[in-house]
Structure formats: C-alpha cells, structure tokens
Prior knowledge:
Subcellular location: Endomembrane system
Shape: elongated
Distance between the termini: 44 Å
Pfam families: PEMT
Helix content: 55-70%
Strand content: under 5%
Radius of gyration: 18 Å
Structural class: mainly alpha
Membrane topology: Multi-pass membrane protein
Transmembrane segments: 7-25, 51-70, 82-105, 138-166
Order of helices and strands: HHHHHH
GO biological process, one term: methylation
Largest sheet: none
Amino acid sequence: MLRDTTAADIALALLVVFSVLGFGWRSWLQHRRTGSAGFRGISGPVGSPEWLVGFGFVVALLASVTAPILQRFNLIEPIGVLRAIWLQIAGIVVAVAGIAATVYAQLAMGDSWRIGVDEAEATTLVQAGPFGLVSNPIYTAMFTFSLGISLVTPNVVAFAGLILLVTTIELHVRLVEEPYLLRTHGDAYRAYTAKVGRFIPGVGRT
C-alpha cells in the first residue's frame, strides 16, 4: 500500500498534468488556431437549472483537487476497504488513460472544441474518431480520469466529487448541449445520436 501522503502527491501530480494538457495547452492551441481560447462560461442566467448545473460542475472539479490535498495533510483518511496497493496502481493507470483519452478526444474536435455553449455560435458537428462511438467522448474521458484519481486517493471527498461530476455533466449534456446541437444541426444531429451512445458506445442513444 502506498503511504497516504505519497498517494496524494501522485494524485496531485496527475491533476496538474490533466489541467495543463486538458485546459491550458488545449486552450492555447485553440487560440492559436482560431483566435479564441474556447471558453464560453457557464450557461444560463444565475439561478437557472443550466447555471446550477454549470456551478455544480465547477464544485465537482474543486472537490477533485481538494480530496488529495486534504489527504496529503492528514485531514482526511482513505476509505479502509479501498486502501489497497492494487487499487491505487489501477487508479494511476486509469487516470493516465483518462488524460490520454481526453487529449485525443479534444484534438478530434478540431476547431469546434470549446468549454461551454454560445447560442450564437454554430460549430461543426464532429462525427469522426471517438465521436463515431459516443457523442461525448471528452466527458467519458473525464469520468475515467476522475475515477482513477478517486482510486488513488479513495476518500469520501474524492468519491463525492466523482458522483457530482457524473451527475452535473449528465444534466449539462441533457439540458444545455443536446438542445443546442439539436437547434443548430437539426435532423443531422438526430441521425447522429441515433447511431452513437451518449457516454458509452451503444448506450443512451436518442
């Protein structure tokens, strides 16, 4: 079993890599290509369901960072039954796979990549690469990464963040992204979502 502080250090290092590649580098690349960093912010007016979902997503990300920090300074302990070296190693592997999958899916979006939705913007409907299997491969990769981090530092805050992340992204996709894409692409989007899953191939077709 890895020491709790060592596991926390590994989780924090993985979070830094994920943040640098998934947000920093990808935003830089988007700005270089299009002149925009791709950030569109939280959708909807303050207090609306769309806004609450976006706010919840931010809280989930903060929980993912807070969990290993709390464990690093011995302010919280891992869940006993999950305190196993094989789970921690598996978590590292899963987290690294999540990082790689996130970058791959983001690159597959090309210039259509963005964080958030701008109703006045019409992006290309991407269907190639991982988007040929699921309509939200970036989110699938983020789930994978978050699960991995939760296994490396398996404390209650980490798993609460994972649950909140999955819940808020599911709601965001249903309340914000899918309605926007349907308005923008119409029948082409309907035909596309009839062929692919939402997060898992073959699951959640609409």
